[in-house]
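Lecture 7 notes. Example A: sequence first, then its C-alpha cells.
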Amino acid sequence: MHDVAPLARLGGFLATGLRDVTGDPAALDSTGWWAVAADFEGRLVCARFGDVRPAPPPTAAPGRWHGPRPGAWTSSLDRAAYTAGVRRVREHIAAGDVYQVNLCRVLSAPLPGAGADIDALSTLLARAHPAAFAGTVRLPAHGVEIATASPELFLRRRGRTVESGPIKGTGRSAADLLAKDYTENVMIVDLVRNDLGRVCVPGSVTVPGLCVAERYPGLVHLVSTVRGELRPGAGWPDLMDAAFPPGSVTGAPKSSALRIIDALETAPRGPYCGAVGWVDADRGVGELAVGIRTFWIDRAAGAAPLLRFGTGAGVTWDSDPAGEWAETELKASRLVGVASTGGHRSDGGERGRSHHGADLAER
C-alpha cells in the first residue's frame, strides 16, 4: 500500500494529524473536526483530525499525478447493457413499480504504479473542473482514497437547520434541458422533502429554490434547494438514516428504486453516489456532498490498484435509452480525460467521446 499520511482537504480546510476513525455516525455529534466518507452500499468512515487549518485549493505541479492510459478504461455496463437497463426501468415504470430510477455504471482503469497519490488528482480536478464541494479524503489504511469534484449538496447542517440541494437534469446548455428534466427534478424534490420531513419539525420543510439552471464546466444542471429544522433530539444518526442514500442518485420511491438498481447494476458504486464531506462537531456545522464526479482508488488485496469513476443518468418514462447513455458519456468524458495520463483532456470531451473518438469505456 502506498505510504502516505492521512489527510482531508474539504470545505476550504486542510486536515492532518489523524486521531480517531469510526463507523458510528453518533461521533459526528461529539467533539472535533471529522472527515466523512460513506459508500452507496452503506459503509461509513468518519475520521477525526487534530490539525485543521484554512487552506486554498491545492496548486502543486500536475506532474505529481500519473493516471491511467486514456484507452485503458472499461465500464461495468457497456452501451448494449446500459440501454437494455434503461428499457427495463421503463418496463418497471409501466408496471407501476417505480416513477424514476438513477441507473449508473462504474468506469475502471489500472494505475501505472502502486504509488498514486489521490490528493495529486484533486489538484488537477481543482484546476480543470472547479466544484463547490471539491476535495480529498485520504485514509489508505482504512481503504479510503477519494478525490471529488462534486457540485451537489447532500446535507448541510448549521445548528438545527438542515438543507439539501438535489441536482436532476443535465445538458450541454440550458437549451438542451427537456420537459423530462424539470419533471424529474420536481419528483426528486418531493422525495427529499419526504426524507427531511422524517427528522424535521412538522411544517418546517420548505423549498426556497426549485429547478434553478446552474452552469458548470461543460454542462448545465437543474438544482433545487430543500430546507428544514431538525426536531429536538435529532442528530446526525437520525439525519443519515432518513436521507441516505441521496434521493437524486436513487429514484422514487426510493425503496423500489434501490431494488431495481441492485438487480440491474453489475458493480458496487462504492463512494460514487454516497456522501463525502466534513463535520465540525464543536460548532455544530457540516457539509456532505453527494459523491458524484468522484474518483477513488481501489487497492484490492493481491491486485494492481485501479482508479474508478462512476457515471449515471435518471431514467423516467420519457427517457430515450440512447439519450441516457449519451448523458453518462457527457458527465464522464471531461473528468476521465483530466484523470488520464498527464491530465490530458479529450478534445472531444464535450461530445461525450474519448481520446480516440470511440465511446468512453465501451469495452
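Example B, a different protein, same format:
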Amino acid sequence: MFDKLNNKLEKIPAGFINFLTIFSSAVTIITPLIGFFTIRKMNLEEKNLFIAIYIVTLIITGSMLFNMYRYMIKYRKILVGVKFIISEKFFYMNRQFRNSYFDIIQTRKDGKLSVEYLTTKVEGVLKSSLDDICEIYRAFTGQKVSACVKYIDSVGSVKLSTATIRTFVRSTNTAIKRCEFDNNLTKPIYIKDNSDFYDILSPNSDRSYFYQQNLVEYAKECEKQGSRYRNSTPDWYLYYQGTIVVPISIANKRLNRKKSCYDVLAFLCIDSMSTEAFLKSEENYNINIARAVAAQMYIMLSQYRQYLKELTEVRKHYD
C-alpha cells in the first residue's frame, strides 16, 4: 500500500510541489495570526474545541510541509543527476567525434588509410555515440531507449522510388533479434516502404523529422484517415512503440550546390518500448537533442563517404 502511494507521489510534477510548498508555508504563517485574534472572542468550551482543531491543523500542515520539502530535495538531486549525465555524455561524444575525425585525416596523410580501418573507425565512434545518446535520453525521459544509424545506399541525389537504406550501426543495448534481422536480410530495404524516412524526404511533406509518442495509435489513426503507416520491419511494434527520426544532413548551399534542398546521408533513429519516453509536450526538447547529435554525425559520415569513394576508386584502378 505504502509503495503504491509513494509511486504516485513521485509522479507529482516538481512545479506543483513547489506551489504547494509555498501555499502551505503561507497557511502556516497566517493560521496562528487568525487563531490568536479569533480565540480571544470565544468562551471556554469554544476555546477548547478550537484549540483541538487548531493543533490538528498545525500537525497536518507541518506534515505536508515536511513531505513537500523532502520531495523538493529529492527532485533537485534528480535534476542535478540529469544535468551531470547529459553534460558529461555530450562532452565525451563531441570530443570523440573531433579526435576520430582528425585521426582519420592523419592516417590518410600517412598513406595508411584502408577501407577496413575507415569503416571500423567510423562504426566505432558512431556506436559509442549511440550509447551516449541512449544514456542522455534515459536520464531525460526516465525510460530505456535504443538507437541506430540508417545509411542511405545512394550516390548523389536520392530517388525515392528506388533508394534503399541499411542499418549502419546500432547501440549496444539493442535487442538481439533486431541485430539478427539486420544480419539476415536477403533483400534491400526501400525508403518508400518506411513512412519514417519517406515522410522526411518526400517533397510533398512539410516534415523535417518524424516524431511519434505512440506508433501503434498513430498507425490506427492513419488507417482511419485512409492512409497507412509503412514499416519494413516485421512486427515492429514488438521492438518499439515510440520513435524519433531525424536526418543526418546539411543544406546543399553549405556545400556550394545550387539545389535548395538538403544533402541527406543517413538517419538517426531513436526508439523505445515505452509510450512515455517521447511525450508530445517534450517534443521540442527531444528533437533538439537528436538534431544536435545528427549535426555532428554528418561531419563524420561525410568524411567517410568521401574517403570511401577515394579508396574504392583506387582499388578499381589496380584491379
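Note on Example B: Residues 1-6 have pLDDT under 50 and may be disordered. Strands lie at 146-152, 164-170, 189-190, 210-212, 242-251, 262-272.
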